[in-house]
Amino acid sequence: MPERLRLVDLVNARLEQFLDERATQLGSIADDLAVFTDASRDLLSGGKRFRALFCYWGWHAVAGTVRPEDLLAELDEHPDLSSIIDAAAALELFHAAALVHDDIMDNSDTRRGMPAAHRRFEADHARREWVGSAATYGTSTALLLGDLLLGWSDELLDSGLERLAEPRSARAARGEFQTMRTEVMVGQYLDIREEVAWRDAAEADLLPRAHRVVTYKSAKYSIEAPLALGGLMAGGTLEQVAALRAFGLPLGVAFQLRDDLLGVFGDPAVTGKPAGDDLREGKRTVIIALARAALPAGAVRLIDELLGDPTLSEHQIATLQATIRDSGAVETTERIIARSVAEAVAALEDAPLSRSARAELIGLSDLVTRRAH
C-alpha cells in the first residue's frame, strides 16, 4: 500500500509539473488561455489513478528490478522509472480527455462532484454576460479542452518513450497507445449508436452488442492497454505481454460492469453523479440487456419507454431500478463480475511475471471491482 500511494504521488507531481509548463506556454500567447489549464487541474485533481497504477505494475511485472526505496529517490537516478511515470501520467491525461468528450455526448451536468467541463464553461459565459449562446460556448470550449488533453497525452508519452534505452520497446509501446486510442474512440461510437439504434438489432444480439461496448469503450483502455503498455516499455516478451492481457481484459470487463451498476444504483453522495444517471442517458448496458431478457413483455415495454428520457423523475428512476432488480439482472451481473475476476487472477498463476507484481495485481483486482464510486 505505501508503494501504491507513492506511485500516485509521483504521477500527480508529474501531471502538476506538466500543466505548469503548459500554463507558461499558453500564458505567452494570452492570459485568457488559463481557462484550459485551470480546468485541467480541477479535472485531474480527482480520480483513482487506476490506469497509471496498472501501467506501472505492467512494467514492474516484466522489469522486476525496482525496490520500494527506489520510489523515494530522485527519478533522475532511475531513468526507466522516470519514463514509466511519464507514460502513466499520459494515460491519465488521455482519460481526462475522454471524460470531457464523454460528458458532452452524454449531456452530463457533473463529473466527480463538480460541474462537467462544458457546464463549467457555460456558467462562465453566463456569469460574465457575454453575447451569444452560453451552451454553445460551453460545448465548443470543452471540445477544445478535450482535444488539448489528447495532444498533451501524446507529448507526455513521447517524453517518456524517448528516454528508453531500447528503441524497439518504444516503438511497440507507441503502437499499443495508438491502438488503445482507436479502440476507445470506436467503442465510444458503438456506445452512443447503441442508445439510438438498438431497435435495429435482433433481440438475441443485444447482450453481445452490449458486451462489445464494454470491451472496447472501457475494458481494454482501462486495464488491458495500460498493463500492456507498461510491459512493452520494459521489453516484455510475447508470452509476458500475453499474460498481462489475459489478466487485464477480463478484469477490465469486471471493472466496467461495476461502473455500470454504479451508474444505475450508485449513491450520488459517493459517485459524484446524479442517481440513475445512466438511465436518463439511455445507456444500453449489459445490465439492461440482461433485464430485458428476463422480464415479461410489459416490464420490457416500461424499460424501453422510460430509458433515455432526460426528464425522468425520482419516482420513475426508482421504478426502473426496482424493475431491473426484480429481473435478477443485478445478481447475474455480480456473478459475471466474480467470474471475470477469477479468470483474471487465474491468468497470473505461473505467468512469467515478477512475484511482487503478481501479488500487487491481485490486490488491485479486488480494489477496482469492489469500489463504491
TrEMBL record:
InterPro entries: Isoprenoid_synthase_dom_sf (IPR008949), Polyprenyl_synt (IPR000092), Polyprenyl_synt_CS (IPR033749). Its cofactor is Mg(2+). PROSITE patterns: POLYPRENYL_SYNTHASE_1, POLYPRENYL_SYNTHASE_2. The keyword Transferase applies. Keywords: Magnesium, Metal-binding, Transferase. The keyword tRNA-binding does not apply. Pfam families: polyprenyl_synt. Belongs to the FPP/GGPP synthase family. This is Polyprenyl synthetase family protein.
